[in-house]
Amino acid sequence: MTKMIMIVDDEPDTVDLVKLVLETEGYEILVAYSGSEALEKIKTEKPDMVLLDIMMPGMDGWAVRTKLLEDKETKDIPIVMLTARAQPIDKMIGLHVVGVADYITKPFGRRELVDRVRAVLGE
Question: Which residues pair with 49 in a beta bridge?
Fold first, then answer.
């Protein structure tokens, strides 16, 4: 069964790149360009995993993560932060305080992205 991954980022170029890489690997891709759009689509589509940017206008990635944790239907969806915030404190907060499954910093390599997505999905 094909795994569905949602990409949430306000930068279309990033979305297009990640989408291309993951579709090439056989994943079904959903896209959202804002936190509120992501929350709407996640509730109806139930992706297997979410790649989530932190810095977005309106609702940032941390707020999206909080909303997903508050909903019993979405709280167990693995979240991987995909962000330019590369400071060690940001990564520590993501992994140990917020409890995301992984934290990938931009720029990233194709192989790194694919390997880390597979690891989170248990493949």
Answer: 5
